Task: inverse folding
């Protein structure tokens, strides 16, 4: 077990394309850190630099207090789970699990012990003599994890390991990965583009955008106190409502001449109100229903704000039967509105209760 | 497999007929002719033909010259296949590592395949001709008594190199494709698993390209058996002292030079049996090959 430290890590590709622009991050021993961001934000590159599969242009990566910049992947004491599992197709599951240990000349009894234990933990004991081609996606995923855990490494690296699974299995495996990590207490770095996966797995959630860290912290910190508009809209589903300054003034949300700011409010912080039933510390907007999404226990009603193109979602309990085109009125607590700098996207308002 | 349905019942047969005609005229008819011819004996002037049954076959199989040619063929085929496949695999792995101008190198490496066998043979003949070949001078300067016109082993070496050189391109293409079909992440996983590049090649790459290698082995053997006639004819004409006379070359000399048509036909029937056996082995193996995924 070991902490992972990244100090001002950069990656510049040929042609001066900067993929990672100075990332500093410290993952405490035993923590589960998730890198999340849109595609092309540099999250996979960063992970591959930690793994040693990609050269580090500048900065340092250390694992367990040891700078690993110039070490081979094999010498970094890490194990990685790949998106396509990367199981060796010509070897049985047992051989797949043994491969890394055999290469390290681990004694045979020790190999057998670790393989059996991993097989028991992951419930793949019955598959040991099969080949990867004979396994289902979920089983392959387990074997890939097994190959990582038999090594008993200082850190696990996960490169979008669940994105090839169907939705139901993904949720199940997500929970399993979390449970396994809690049990083994191995420092983990996990890359995903799925913010829900990131929210549910992470101890430390790191949002990357265009090669830089936008914000890092616990999932709820990022959810409740996003440092920027980017984080605010990326974390949370459905996304936070964003109201540009002009539309906010036109809708009467902010007085004329107020300092320019983009407003953001989450759908669950708004409610539909009849007439003028809103309380004093609530802001009220008039919307025209443009769509209704029923997700089961609740519905998200989307409405257009005045004559602008801005759309606002409101969470409504139960099954909403509003028809598109009908007018509605939504209210949200004034404290729930976050204000962001329209140029830089940085949050300007303090968050109440923070 | 989706089934195509033709509106006219005759049309599919019509479309197939040119190919069928070509196959019948140029493959089946000669094959049947050879089968029939192999059981006949003709006098030197072609005036009288006698049916002799399997006499030609027993003569051929007992003939020390034929056995010598069979052994020469084995040596030649194995050397050519090993040399051309080994070099091609080496080049293919090297070409994978090239960062700039990949396409350029590949094109250059594929070029020799377009050279006709006889031309390839001549090329090597000139380069290594004891009297005027540049390489012959270099070899002699290096202290080697280079004379493929008298030394059978040197002659064999020369035809093997010439034949292999021509086949490298073909093998190279297949190896490049096979190497590219191995997912990068597999090699990365192996690197993390502590396998250095030599070990990765032995334990991951080589087993995964094994089906391609086996396919190439059969293709190269068949090539060495049959398609190298032009090279041998141009470079050594089977000499010196039959040191480079392969089975297919002997079919030619016995039939078209010595005009022993019956024996020549019997020999080609035996060759046909060999290629059928080789192909059968290949199909059995390819069907059973490991399935990836």
Result:
């Amino acid at each position: 077990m070991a902490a992972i430290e990244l100090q001002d890590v950069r990656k510049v590709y040929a042609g001066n394309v900067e993929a990672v622009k100075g990332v500093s991050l410290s993952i405490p021993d035993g923590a589960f850190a998730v890198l999340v961001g849109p595609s092309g934000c540099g999250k996979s590159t960063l992970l591959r630099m930690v793994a040693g599969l990609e050269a580090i242009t500048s900065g340092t990566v250390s694992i367990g207090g040891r700078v690993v910049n110039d070490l081979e992947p094999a010498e970094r004491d890490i194990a990685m789970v790949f998106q396509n599992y990367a199981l060796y197709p010509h070897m049985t599951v047992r051989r797949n699990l043994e491969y890394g240990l055999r290469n390290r000349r681990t004694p045979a009894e020790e190999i057998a012990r670790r393989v059996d234990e991993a097989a028991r933990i992951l419930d793949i004991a019955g598959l040991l003599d099969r080949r990867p081609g004979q396994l289902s996606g979920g089983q392959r995923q387990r074997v890939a994890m097994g190959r990582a855990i038999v090594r008993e490494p200082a850190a696990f690296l996960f490169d979008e390991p669940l994105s090839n699974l169907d939705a139901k299995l993904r949720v199940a495996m997500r929970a399993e990965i979390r449970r396994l990590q809690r049990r083994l207490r191995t420092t983990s770095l996990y890359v995903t583009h799925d913010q829900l996966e990131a929210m549910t797995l992470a101890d430390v959630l790191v949002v990357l955008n265009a090669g830089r860290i936008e914000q890092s912290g616990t999932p709820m910190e990022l959810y409740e106190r996003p440092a920027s508009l980017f984080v605010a809209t990326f974390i949370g589903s459905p996304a936070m409502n964003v109201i540009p300054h002009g539309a906010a003034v036109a809708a009467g949300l902010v007085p004329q001449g107020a300092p320019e700011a983009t407003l953001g409010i989450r759908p669950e912080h708004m409610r539909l109100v009849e007439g003028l039933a809103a309380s004093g510390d609530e802001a009220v907007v008039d919307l025209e229903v443009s769509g209704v999404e029923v997700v089961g226990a609740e519905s998200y009603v989307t409405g257009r704000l005045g004559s602008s193109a801005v759309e606002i979602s409101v969470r409504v309990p139960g099954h909403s039967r509003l028809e598109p085109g009908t007018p509605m009125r939504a209210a949200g607590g004034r404290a729930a509105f976050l204000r962001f700098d329209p140029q830089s996207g940085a949050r300007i308002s303090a968050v109440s209760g923070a | 497999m989706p089934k195509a349905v033709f509106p006219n019942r005759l049309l599919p047969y019509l479309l197939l007929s040119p190919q069928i005609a070509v196959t019948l005229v140029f493959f089946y008819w000669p094959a049947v002719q050879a089968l029939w011819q192999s059981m006949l004996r003709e006098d030197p002037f072609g005036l009288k033909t006698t049916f002799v049954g399997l006499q030609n076959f027993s003569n051929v199989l007992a003939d020390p010259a034929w056995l010598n040619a069979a052994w020469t063929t084995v040596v030649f085929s194995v050397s050519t296949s090993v040399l051309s496949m080994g070099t091609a695999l080496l080049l293919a792995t090297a070409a994978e590592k090239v960062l700039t101008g990949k396409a350029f190198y590949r094109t250059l490496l594929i070029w020799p395949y377009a050279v006709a066998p006889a031309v390839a043979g001549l090329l090597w003949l000139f380069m290594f001709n004891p009297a005027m070949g540049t390489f012959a001078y270099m070899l002699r300067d290096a202290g080697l008594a280079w004379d493929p016109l008298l030394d059978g082993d040197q002659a064999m070496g020369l035809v093997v190199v010439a034949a292999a050189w021509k086949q490298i391109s073909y093998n190279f293409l297949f190896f490049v494709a096979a190497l590219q079909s191995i997912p990068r992440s597999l090699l990365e996983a192996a690197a993390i698993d502590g396998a250095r590049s030599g070990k990765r090649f032995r334990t991951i790459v080589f087993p995964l390209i094994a089906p391609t290698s086996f396919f190439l082995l059969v293709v190269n053997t068949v090539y060495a058996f049959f398609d190298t006639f032009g090279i041998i004819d141009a470079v050594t004409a089977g000499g010196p002292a039959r040191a480079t006379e392969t089975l297919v070359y002997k079919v030619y000399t016995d039939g078209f030079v010595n005009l022993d048509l019956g024996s020549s036909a019997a020999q080609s029937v035996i060759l046909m049996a060999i290629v059928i056996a080789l192909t059968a082995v290949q199909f059995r193996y390819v069907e059973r090959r490991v399935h990836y995924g």
Observations:
- Strands of chain B lie at 40-42, 49-51.
